[in-house]
Write a structure and sequence with these properties.
By secondary structure, this protein is of the alpha+beta class. The chain is built from 5 helices and 8 strands. The radius of gyration is 16 Å and the shape is globular. The two termini are 20 Å apart.
Length: 143
């Protein structure tokens, strides 16, 4: 399971050092692709296979589903950690997420997210405002 927030930097060659506590889980390989709200998703390969099945279950007769699959898979980049625990982030993905030098890697249970530091701060502040309300609603739902 991926948990926590980690400040990291992208080097001049577009490489990102993954947090050391996650490297063993990512050692078999990973896939980086577009995430929601202009972040990047990083899936370990076993979790990627589950995501592929989920997207492939969407009806292809729906234009929105087809476009989602095109964007999600078309942007995907399979990666392997190098000896220093780094991955290469393709320029197209860095552009999509607005990534500069400083980034935040966030553990979100089954995946990692890579965020521009300023974008993450803004989103995190917004999410914190909603957190209590959501927790209360989940409790009322019995979840």
């Amino acid at each position: 399971m991926f948990l926590g927030e980690y400040q990291h930097s992208i080097d001049d060659k577009g490489r990102l050092v993954m947090p050391s506590k996650f490297r063993e889980r990512l050692d078999a390989g990973l896939v980086v692709t577009k995430g929601q709200e202009h972040c990047l998703y990083v899936f370990p390969l076993d979790r990627w296979d589950i995501e592929v099945e989920r997207v492939n279950r969407l009806p292809r007769t729906n234009r929105r589903n087809r476009n989602y699959a095109r964007s999600f898979f078309g942007a995907a980049s399979d990666q392997a950690l190098d000896k220093q625990g780094r991955i290469q982030l393709p320029q197209t993905l860095r552009d999509y997420a607005g990534l500069g030098k400083d980034v935040i890697v966030v553990g979100v249970a089954d995946r990692l997210e890579v965020w521009d530091t300023e974008a993450w701060t803004a989103l995190s502040d917004e999410a914190d405002e909603l957190y209590a309300d959501i927790e209360e609603a989940l409790s009322e739902e019995g979840i």
